[in-house]
Specification:
The complex is a heterodimer of chains A (276) and B (115).
Chain A (H helix, E strand, L loop, with lengths): L1 H24 L6 H21 L1 H10 L1 H33 L8 H36 L4 H27 L3 H29 L22 H10 L7 H30 L3
Helix pairs in contact in A: 1-5, 1-6, 1-7, 2-5, 3-4, 4-5, 4-7, 4-9, 5-6, 7-8, 7-9
Chain B lengths: L1 H27 L1 E8 L2 E3 L2 E4 L5 E7 L5 E5 L4 E5 L4 E6 L5 E7 L7 E6 L1
Parallel strand pairs in B: 1-4, 3-9
Antiparallel strand pairs in B: 1-2, 4-7, 5-6, 5-8, 8-9
The chains are: A mainly alpha (276), B alpha+beta (115).
């Protein structure tokens, strides 16, 4: 039961932390709870569906179906995070100035919310399908202690949600003036980290070259398996022994999103200085 | 009688062809096999060449699924019970690369030494 608890907890924690950051990043935007909830439910439904077809998916692309799927899903999340980031670069200030935001234009609120809902869906989908398969495997194995293991799994989900809630509470203690800056920075780094993960999956599928292993090795100082390393892996994409291509993907993602946000912000400013 | 002779002849031909194909594949690239049995790796340690590409075949001889994972050479794949997976790895820099079965991390642990 303990081992099931730990496995499910770890799988779910990643999704829970991402949902927590998304909730903090959208604090004060009307209707965000509904959007995030929709994202989570869609992710769960997708996870169940994915678990159902996992065998067939794995056999696609010469046995690399799962890798390709993971990479595509991760890159989709990167695009959505990037879009949200670029959108926030112009509207973030407005959100802060109209901090109560109840009367905010619904259409304006809608745009980043659909992206944020999708990010939640993707996070839940990816980690959820593995958990579903894992628990299903236990259930059909018909082991005597299946019930206690399923209980362990349920407890793991609850514990991960609790940690996510605590993290959300912590983020909310940041004054609203800074909360978008903090969550924006975390989301940007999450996007870069997800791009690096996608790159590793594409190497595994034989689509991309690794461009070298062990570009650095900090596993003696901060292994990815200890709690701090694991948390940093989720939040900023920390990798103890990265492949070259992971670093390329990480830096390229940061550069593209930051450049695009800068361009959009400048265009926005020029447009407001010289009204047509 | 005739049919069975034909069958055994063609079976023999198929075996010969597949043997030849296997031999030519083996000369192209080195291949290493790890078997998962009773949630343990056999062999649990293996030597692989540094600076060269190779195939790593992981056979899951257990009836239960296992997730073969390494954060050191970056692979992550669920292998169903009785199935196997082939990973294309390298060229690695010399050093030690750990791997584990995520569903039985207490017993399914191994190390690869690139030399």
């Amino acid at each position: 039961m303990i081992s099931t608890f730990i496995i499910v907890f770890r799988e779910t924690l990643e999704a829970a932390l991402i949902v927590a950051i998304v909730l903090a990043a959208s604090a004060g935007i009307a209707g965000r709870t509904r959007w995030v909830a929709t994202g989570i439910v869609a992710g769960l439904a997708g996870a169940g569906l994915l678990a159902l077809f996992a065998g067939r998916l794995a056999d696609m692309f010469e046995g690399n179906g799962t890798e390709i799927f993971n990479a595509v899903v991760l890159l989709l999340a990167v695009v959505m995070l990037g879009w949200h980031q670029i959108w926030m670069s112009t509207h973030g200030a407005e959100l802060v100035s109209e901090s109560k935001s109840v009367g905010q234009d619904a259409r304006e609120g809608l745009r980043p919310l659909s992206a944020l809902a999708l990010i939640c869906a993707v996070a839940v989908l990816r980690e959820g399908s593995e958990t579903v398969l894992f628990l299903y495997g236990i259930a059909i194995d018909g082991e005597l202690d299946a019930r206690s293991m399923l209980q362990g799994g349920a407890l793991g989900v609850v514990a991960a949600a609790l940690v996510g809630a605590l993290f959300y509470g912590g983020l909310l203690r940041i004054p609203l003036k800074h909360v978008f800056k903090v969550t924006g920075a975390i989301l940007l780094l999450i996007a870069a980290g997800l791009a690096a993960q996608a790159a590793a999956f594409l190497v595994q599928a034989g689509v991309l070259p690794p461009l070298g292993y062990d570009i650095w090795n900090t596993s003696a100082i901060l292994p990815q398996t200890n709690p701090v390393g694991f948390l940093l892996h989720i939040l900023v994409g920390y990798v103890a022994r990265p492949e070259g291509i992971q670093i390329v993907a990480y830096i390229a993602t940061l550069a593209i999103i930051l450049t695009a946000s800068g361009l959009v912000r400048r265009m926005h400013r020029e447009a407001s200085v010289r009204p047509a | 009688m005739k049919l069975s002779r034909f069958l055994s002849l063609s079976l023999g031909a198929v075996a010969l062809v597949s043997l030849a194909a296997g031999a030519s594949a083996a000369t192209d690239q080195k291949s290493f096999t790890i078997t998962i049995k009773d949630h343990r790796f056999a062999p649990a340690t293996l030597k692989v060449p540094a600076g060269a590409e190779f195939d790593l075949v992981v056979v899951n001889a257990d009836p239960t699924a296992e997730e073969f994972e390494s954060q050191d050479f970056h692979v992550e794949k669920v292998i169903q019970g009785g199935k196997q997976a082939t990973f294309h790895v390298g060229p690695l820099t010399a050093g030690s690369y750990g791997f584990f079965g995520e569903r039985h991390e207490d017993t399914a642990l191994g190390n690869m030494f690139a030399e």
